[in-house]
Amino acid sequence: MDIEARIKRRQRHDGEPRLVQDYETLSPVTHIDEPADRGPLLERLLDHLDPVFDGNLPANAYLYGPNGVGKSAVVTALFSQLNRLPTETRTVIHTTTRAQSLTSPSFVYLDTRQTTSEFAFFHAVLDSLVEESVPEHGIGTETLRARLHEELAGSRIGVVVAVDHVGEPRSTSESDLVDLFAGLPSNVSWLAMGRKRPAETELAEYTAECIRVDPYQQQMLVDVLMTRASIGLSQQAIEHDLADEIAEWANGNAHDALAALFIATHHAEQAGRSELSRADVEAAFEEIPIPCVSLGIVLALPDNRQAVLRELVDLDEEERSSVTATTAAIGGSERVDLSPGTVKRFLYEMAEAGVVERVQAATQGGQGRPPSRVEPRFPPTVFRRLYDLG
């Protein structure tokens, strides 16, 4: 129970009830401290990490499952809790009445959508282990590697590194990841997280255990939605049957379910209502493309690509009638300081990565190849709001 969030939800600054208390809590890319209904997965992860409670490193492992099943949510919450305890001199309490003072590893979470280079990898690990801030400029990769080796040499046990979103197009490649860990001291173990099945990834060859995460069952997904709504919305803003409808539509995918809740909330807020309606939910279903690209992928793009997408989601139908028209509209914006050629290149790159889709227009009797337009493969309302808030 989040007491602080519940108090905040009841506060009124203008005397009027407000539908939205916190949009960030509703975001599909936000992970809360206590993920709903993932107890069995948490127990499996704790079983794997059990050696740390005896002062030992666990073996490498691979956690896998489709998008939106809670892999990142559970691991980030678990590692956050483990790191709130003192490391290296933690007291471990066993089932007996005797307490034993043992050393314990540190826990580091990395997102390969962000750490896409060798420098970024070493920087992120080192920055998580030391109290002082590690500079991002004026320091070389080899210096970072040497400092990381020195830091790990001073640890009696070492570190467990969770590496998220492996195997995605713009993330660190699997072979590069294996090489990076092979170059670190032996007191480092890793928990890789991805969507591929073990037979489809070389990472499984270097792990002692593969842990599968299945999609949410419908009632579990309802609990996820109601938990987020209890924090981010006013009381009784969403009826249970609407949450159930969203969960059924999302088919086990928490990302899409939360995106639908976010969009429905936006529609209700724009209409000045204090609760969500079925029409709001149906509007959300219509906006979300199937399949939907994770907003985490979109928000991990470089700033200039995100700026192009921010303009794209505001263009009218005529401005999106062709790639040429879209390029001209975005390139002519005062908020995008890019040449038309660069804008077009970015659009093609993001189409190749699946973030946007080139849809061929219907032939209208003319000769030659019909033009194609660009459509986002993510929900524009959620991206627009999160981009503007960020």
Description:
With 390 residues, the protein is an alpha/beta fold. The chain folds into three domains: 39-212, Rossmann fold; 216-287, Orthogonal Bundle (Helicase, Ruva Protein, domain 3); 295-389, Arc Repressor Mutant, subunit A. 44% of the residues lie in helices and 12% in strands. The chain contains 16 helices and nine strands. The protein has a five-stranded parallel β-sheet, with helices on both faces. The chain has a two-stranded antiparallel sheet with strand order 2-3. The longest helix has 17 residues, at 254-270. The protein is globular. The model is unreliable at 88-102 (pLDDT under 50). It holds the Pfam family AAA_16. It comes from Haloarcula salinisoli.
Question: What descriptors fit this protein?
Answer:
single chain, 390 residues, alpha/beta, Rossmann fold, Helicase, Ruva Protein, domain 3, Arc Repressor Mutant, subunit A, 3 domains, 9 strands, globular, P-loop_NTPase, AAA family ATPase, WH_DNA-bd_sf
List the helices and strands and how they pair.
Blueprint (H helix, E strand, L loop, with lengths): L2 H8 L12 H4 L12 H11 L11 E4 L6 H13 L7 E3 L5 E3 L4 E6 L6 H12 L11 H13 L5 E8 L7 H9 L5 E7 L14 E4 L5 H15 L7 H11 L3 H17 L7 H10 L7 H5 L3 H10 L10 H9 L8 H13 L3 E5 L11 E5 L3 H10 L1
Parallel strand pairs: 1-6, 1-7, 4-5, 5-6
Antiparallel strand pairs: 2-3, 8-9
Summarize the structure.
Residues 38-187 form the Orc1-like AAA ATPase domain. With 390 residues, the protein is an alpha/beta fold. It is built from 16 helices and nine strands.
What is the domain total for the residues? 3
User: Which parts are unreliable, with pLDDT below 50 for 5 consecutive residues or more?
Assistant: 88-102
Considering DSSP H and I runs of 4 or more, what fraction of the residues is helical? 40-55%
The shape is globular
How many β-strands, per DSSP?
9
By secondary-structure content and strand pairing, the structural class works out as alpha/beta
CATH architecture call of the largest domain:
3-Layer(aba) Sandwich
Mean pLDDT: 87
The total count of helices amounts to 16
What does the largest sheet look like? 5 strands, parallel
How much strand content do the residues show?
Answer: 5-15%
The level-1 CATH class of the largest domain = Alpha Beta
Strand order of the largest sheet: 4-5-6-1-7
Terminal CA distance: 27 Å
Q: How do the helices and strands follow one another from N- to C-terminus?
A: HHHEHEEEHHEHEEHHHHHHHHEEH
The Cα radius of gyration reads 23 Å
Remind me, CATH topology of the largest domain? Rossmann fold
Q: CATH H-level name of the largest domain... which superfamily?
A: P-loop containing nucleotide triphosphate hydrolases
